[in-house]
Amino acid sequence: MIGRLNHVAIATAELDQAAALYRDLLGAKVSAPQPLPEHGVTVVFVELSNTKIELLQPLGDASPIAAFLAKNPSGGMHHLCYEVDDIVTARDHLVAAGARVLGEIKTGAHGKPVLFLHPKDFAGTLIELEQA
């Protein structure tokens, strides 16, 4: 059902510093910051040859990333995103198998439908599915 790894998301309180590390120290191509108010974050994408790193900074105290950083002040890996061919079919299959979907399908940073799966159902890892 899942396809390729789309991105690894890393939460950070210092988006500019994190982007500079990837750009200046590791030589990666880094996008400009993109605010996503509907998700409560500002994102920067680090382009790699086989996937992306998504750097996340909270947009306000109500952001789910703010809550993550309150528990993990140094930041860290927030979620993994996998591609699926059909997000509705994937959701229905997972729910029928007992997996918990967090919220509704939304439009993600790439303009494609996304949803999140409860980390307790996936070895402690928050999973994002994105329709390819």
Features of this protein?
nine-stranded mixed beta sheet, single chain, 3 helices, 2,3-Dihydroxybiphenyl 1,2-Dioxygenase, domain 1, 9 strands, alpha+beta, 132 residues, 22% helix
What does this structure look like?
The chain has 132 residues and is an alpha+beta fold. The chain has a single domain (2-131), classed as 2,3-Dihydroxybiphenyl 1,2-Dioxygenase, domain 1 (Roll). Helices cover 22% and strands 42% of the residues. It has three helices and nine strands. Strands 1, 2, 3, 4, 5, 6, 7, 8 and 9 form a nine-stranded mixed beta sheet that branches. It is globular and about 45 Å long. The mean pLDDT is 96.
Report, as a whole number of angstroms, the end-to-end distance: 12 Å
Gyration radius, in Å: 15 Å
- Assign a percent range to the helix content: 10-25%
Q: What class do helices, strands and sheet pairing give?
A: alpha+beta
Give the tally of structural domains.
Answer: 1
Q: Supply the CATH architecture.
A: Roll
Unreliable spans are none
Kindly report the name of the CATH homologous superfamily.
2,3-Dihydroxybiphenyl 1,2-Dioxygenase, domain 1
Name the CATH class: Alpha Beta
The CATH topology comes to 2,3-Dihydroxybiphenyl 1,2-Dioxygenase, domain 1
Number of strands: 9
Give the helices and strands as they follow along the chain. Answer: EHEEEEHEHEEE
Beta content comes to 35-45%
Largest sheet: 9 strands, mixed
Which helices and strands appear, and what pairs or packs with what?
Layout: E1 2-11, H1 15-25, E2 29-30, E3 34-36, E4 41-47, E5 52-58, H2 64-71, E6 76-84, H3 87-96, E7 101-107, E8 113-117, E9 126-131
Parallel strand pairs: 1-5, 6-9
Antiparallel strand pairs: 1-6, 2-4, 3-4, 4-5, 7-8, 8-9
